[in-house]
Amino acid sequence: MQTIDAQIQNALHQASPEAAMRDVKHVVARELQALDPKTEIKTTDYFNHTFIPDFVLTWGSGGQRPTRDIYLRFSVDAPLIQRDLKSLHEESPAFIAISGGERHSDGNPDSAFSEYDDCLLSSTEALESISKEDSRTPVTQMLKASLLQGGKGYLLGDSAAQVQRAVSRADTALSRLDGPEVAASVMAMNDYLSPAFSSRIERVMQVMWVSQGGDAGRFPGSHEIVAALSSGELTQILPFLLSLEDVTNNDFWRNLGENLAIDHLQELKHWRRSTNLNLLVNANLDRISARGAAVDQIQPDLFDDLNRPPYWEVNESHLHLRCGEVDFKFVDDRRKISHRTEMGIAPRWYEIERRLDRYGIEGLEFTSPGSKTRIRSSTREGLPESLDMQALSEALGEMARVMAAELRWPRSRHNIEVDFDGSTVESVGAALHPHILAYVGLDLLSQASPGNLINFQQFVADGERFPWWNESGGSPSSALEQF
């Protein structure tokens, strides 16, 4: 395949100026997309214009999306480019040279542009050499993607080679705990990325370093070592990491999420299912807590695969778990699901009795055509030990239905309220881990089969890789004692 410079030269030597402009911009846009596939690239109707950019790049979602103007130039060497820097530097744009065989300024080029160090000066040739490097870890992916949004300085010649080396060797250096090579990557980031981006990547490098067994105190970085990412860092970094190619290093997600809470996931606003999101949540389920979950039966559409494995997603600032036709919406405040318009189906006692026996029954609410009864246990042993449940069921009659049940999670002090009529599962007292609430919802509200319950447990434990069913390892099913 031709180099990008050869493609540009072929495009420029067309008889039609309009075709030349169109094809040059197409080639460059493809190269920009290769550096950061998540970039939204908008081209203008101008080419090599004095003060109108050739491209406007946009990232993220929502109303406050960051942007950056890209100006194509035949050369970014002094003195011609200094005029552009002086008049256009306020928005920190990027100037990219498209002519082959880029000349470099005599002496130290950085000194000529030091007054405009928030701007990026590079070339298609330099960016191509960096984009071709494989992205095998979050660090190398972040380095490449950050160049467009946060790149700065004179990224040509030796400086471009320095960044290319960081992209190509950072992952290997981290896996081998190669201090000098990691230090060289950190230096390249600090020199050619804005502080917001370089510090973010360095924190992820610290996480990778520790994930490989390195001593946090010996990480060769430029910032103070902190054992875990702070809440603010998680909020900033998670969208970037989750948008990368699949990162299947489970230790990475575990170390990353030491301070992970449901709030950080809610901050994502909208995030569709992905391998990275599944790994992040499942690796840290013992750290995430929710007050309750609304449980809905989803009407599948024509293209909905009901045999698809469970997955996590964020929708309208709520963490969701989808298991076949069942959708769980987790909340950090029970009031958010206390006035649901959706109605569940209250089962008859005989339909749910055997499933309830897996738990400690603390209280029940029955309804029948002529009465409504709510009973609670007066002992620590629960209702089955203090009350003749069969006699109660017979007294209420065949038409009696269970409206709600308060249960004790096995071998724990946690109580769970199951509202069959409102189709919700809520913690009583302390918040609970989402997978515990989901298990109860699948078991009692959806009456899932044993096979589906086992599949769910294997999903949240990643095939027993994360054995955190609860603090004491308890499970409501004696047939599933691995949890």
Describe the structure in your own words.
By secondary structure, the chain is α+β, with helices and mostly antiparallel strands. 39% of the residues lie in helices and 17% in strands. The chain has 18 helices and 15 strands. β9 (318-323) and β10 form a beta hairpin. The two termini are 53 Å apart.
Task: Please specify the SSE layout and strand pairing.
Elements (H helix, E strand, L loop, with lengths): L3 H9 L4 H19 L4 E4 L11 E4 L8 E7 L6 H9 L5 E4 L11 H5 L6 E4 H8 L6 H13 L2 E2 L3 H18 L3 H14 L2 H17 L19 H12 L7 H7 L5 H5 L8 H9 L8 E6 L13 E5 L2 E6 L2 E6 L17 H8 L3 E9 L2 E6 L6 H4 L2 H8 L4 E8 L6 E5 L4 E5 L5 H12 L4 H11 L23
Parallel strand pairs: 3-4, 4-5, 5-6
Antiparallel strand pairs: 1-2, 2-3, 7-10, 7-15, 8-9, 9-10, 11-12, 11-13, 13-14, 14-15
Q: How is this structure best summarized?
A:
The chain has helices at 4-12, 17-35, 80-88, 109-113, 124-131, 138-150, 158-175, 179-192, 195-211, 231-242, 250-256, 262-266, 275-283, 349-356, 383-386, 389-396, 434-445, 450-460, and strands at 40-43, 55-58, 67-73, 94-97, 120-123, 153-154, 292-297, 311-315, 318-323, 326-331, 360-368, 371-376, 401-408, 415-419, 424-428. The protein is of the alpha+beta class and 483 residues long. Mean pLDDT is 83; it is low at 468-473 and 478-483.
